[in-house]
Amino acid sequence: xxxxxxxxxxxxxxxxxxxxxxxxxxxxxxxxxxxxxxxxxxxxxxxxxxxxxxxxxxxxxxxxxxxxxxxxxxxxxxxxxxxxxxxxxxxxxxxxxxxxxxxxxxxxxxxxxxxxxxxxxxxxxxxxxxxxxxxxxxxxxxxxxxxxxxxxxxxxxxxxxxxxxxxxxxxxxxxxxxxxxxxxxxxxxx
Length: 190
Fold this sequence. Notes:
Distance between the termini: 79 Å
Strand content: over 45%
CATH class of the largest domain: Mainly Beta
């Protein structure tokens, strides 16, 4: 074998070893950054409960928000988001208390070890961000925000009664006052 042939073989071996090292490094980095399996267990649990089309009633007690109280009816549709790690809920209701439309995006935040919900509605700007946990059989979301110089604290507690029914109670407090029931929801999956 000539010296030139040996150098070519050596050069090819060095290139092959370098390419293999680069591919191995890329594969190792990709494995380290690999996202959790899809969908996450926490979202599998929620999807079994929420995904589908629901009809619901909203019962508003007499309050500063709804001086006469009243009952609205509505529909919401929950579907899986990309990869199954979010649930996108579109809702719309109307009745004597008013007409409401919006979107809720629910997901699991592994760093916080909590559910997050981002609520977008036609009657308020930006998003209300909620943090949720299971408290016994209830999924409870909490949030705080300021509007019109007031600080609001919300607590939403949802209980799944069966595969096709749920109730949800939203409580509110303004500027540190005791919380009051804002709305009671009863929903049936269709």
